[in-house]
Design brief:
Blueprint lengths: L2 E5 L8 E7 L6 E6 L1 H5 L2 E5 L8 E7 L5 E7 L1
Antiparallel strand pairs: 1-4, 2-3, 2-5, 5-6
Length: about 80
């Protein structure tokens, strides 16, 4: 079953590179580059197979200034 991620708000400077990582911040992989407008209208993506089997993940975004915004959650 796919794990779905929803981003509904973020601070920083658009655009943002979106990555999903293991909960410790290792083995990150690129998802997409999104703009503030896409996030304001709620950006949703599925964690692709075979990476969708973990019990927790770190979402990492890198903004246009190179700042890293991250958070970890359980599923």
């Amino acid at each position: 079953m796919a794990v779905q991620v929803t981003i509904s708000s973020i601070t920083g400077s658009s655009p943002y590179d979106v990555y999903i990582c293991q909960s410790a911040g290792t083995q990150c992989f690129y998802i997409s580059t999104v703009t503030q407008a896409e996030i304001d209208s709620t950006y949703i993506f599925d964690i692709p197979i075979p990476y969708d089997t973990s019990s927790s993940y770190m979402l990492k975004l890198i903004d246009n200034n190179g700042c890293i915004i991250s958070g970890t959650t359980s599923v």
